Amino acid sequence: EIVLTQSPGTLSLSPGERATISCRASQSVSSSYLAWYHQKRGQAPRLLVYGPSNRATGIPDRFSGSGSGTDFTLTISRLEPEDFAVYYCQHYDGSSWTFGQGTKVEIK
Amino acid sequence: EVQLLQSGGGLVQPGGSLKLSCAASGFTFSGSSMHWVRQASGKGLEWVARIRTKPNNFATTYGASVKGRFSISRDDSRNTVYLQMDSLKAEDTAVYYCATEGWLRAFDHWGQGAQVTVSS
Asked: What is the least distance, in Å, from the CA of A96 to any CA of chain B?
C-alpha cells in the first residue's frame, strides 16, 4: 500500500505570502493520478488540482501543482484569506485511493 | 449545477446497520463512477468505496477497513448512490461524504456530508 506523507503538518503564513506544501509517496507513483484538495472548517473537501498540474473548474491560477515519481508539490503563489484551510494530497494506485494526512495552512 | 444531497446519517449501536443515500443532480449520473469517503472528527480523509457504471458492470471496490461489512450500490433510475453499513464498530464513527469521480480519477464534486455515530 502506498503511503502519502505531507509536510509540513502546519504552515503559518500571512495573506499575500507564498505557500508550498509537499506530498511524498512511499514508492514511485504515476503523476497522472495525483490530486490536491482543500477543506475549510465544517465543509466538504474541494478539488483543486489533479494530474498533477491541471486546475479544477473554477480554481484560480494562484494554485499550481507539480512533481513526479515520489515528490509532489502544491504551491499557492499569493495567499488569499479564503485559502486558509487544510490541504490534502490523494493518489489512485489502480485499485484504491489514498490520502495524505493533511497540511493546515493557518494565518500567522 | 452539480448537486449531491446526502441523507441517512444518525446514531447506531455497535453491531448495528445503517444506510446512507446520496441523490445526484446536474450531471449525467449514469455515466459517473461514485465514491464514499469518510472523516473521523479531527482526522484526515479515508476513502471507503467506489462503484463504477453500467458499462463497467457496476464493479465495486472497497477500502480494507470496511471490506466485507459495507456495500455500495446505485440506482441510476433515481440518480442515487447508497452505502449500506453493517456490523458497525465505534471506529466507523465519522462524517461520510459521497463524491463523483472525474478526470484522472480525482473526486470533482462532493456531497455535504452525513454524520454517522456508532455508540451504545
From this structure: 7
